[in-house]
Specification:
By secondary structure, the chain is of the alpha+beta class. Helices cover 25% and strands 33% of the residues. The strands form 3 sheets. Strands 1-2-3-12-6-9 form a 6-stranded antiparallel β-sheet. A 4-stranded antiparallel β-sheet has the order 4-11-7-8, with no helix packed on it.
Length: 169
C-alpha cells in the first residue's frame, strides 16, 4: 500500500535533480539512461503509481469513460520545486487518442505499461516503459495502444493547456 504523500516524498529528490533542466530530446535521453526501467527511481515510482491506481487515489477521475482517467496528485509547491504531479490511465488495444493539449513549459512523463506491450506515443514515436520529455510549447493528443498504461507526469509550474485548437485533419 502506498500513500499520496509517499509518492510525493519519493518525487522530491528527483525534482530537485531536474528543476533547472529544460524538457526536450536531450533531457529525455538523460532520463532514460539515468532513471529508466530497472533503476530505483523508475521502479519505485512505477510501483507507487500502480498502487495508487489500484487503490483508487490516482487517475481516478473519468475523462472519457473508465478507459481514460486522470487526477492531479500534487499542485505546484515549493517542496516539489513548483512542479505539479498528475497521473493518467489509458487503456486501449487499438490506438486511442486522449484530449489535445499543450505543454507551455514542457513535461516530464514516466510511462508505466500495465499490459505487457502497451505503448504511449511520445515525441520520438511509440514507446513502452521509460520517460518522454516533450519540450516547451509542444502539443499533441496523448495516444495509447496495446493495452493499459499509466503516465505519471511532472509539469513545470503545473502548466498545461487544454484550450488549444488541434491542427486541422
Amino acid at each position: 500500500m502506498t500513500t499520496v504523500q509517499e509518492l510525493i516524498d519519493r518525487s522530491i529528490p528527483f525534482l530537485d535533480e531536474v528543476k533547472n533542466r529544460t524538457a526536450g530530446g536531450k533531457l529525455e535521453t538523460w532520463l532514460n539512461e539515468t532513471h529508466g526501467p530497472g533503476t530505483a527511481l523508475y521502479d519505485d515510482l512505477a510501483r507507487m503509481i500502480g498502487d495508487g491506481v489500484r487503490e483508487g487515489w490516482a487517475a481516478n477521475i473519468e475523462v472519457d469513460g473508465p478507459h481514460y482517467r486522470r487526477s492531479r496528485i500534487a499542485e505546484p509547491a515549493d517542496v516539489i520545486n513548483y512542479f505539479s504531479i498528475t497521473a493518467v490511465y489509458m487503456d486501449s488495444v487499438e490506438p486511442f487518442c486522449g484530449q489535445y493539449h499543450q505543454h507551455p513549459y514542457g513535461e516530464l512523463n514516466l510511462v508505466v505499461p500495465l499490459t505487457p506491450g502497451a505503448e504511449l506515443m511520445g515525441p520520438r514515436g511509440w514507446q513502452g516503459p521509460g520517460w518522454t520529455a516533450p519540450g516547451p510549447g509542444s502539443h499533441h493528443y496523448p495516444e495509447v495502444r496495446g493495452g493499459a498504461l499509466i503516465a505519471l507526469f511532472y509539469l513545470p509550474a503545473g502548466r498545461i493547456s487544454y484550450d488549444i485548437t488541434p491542427p486541422a485533419a
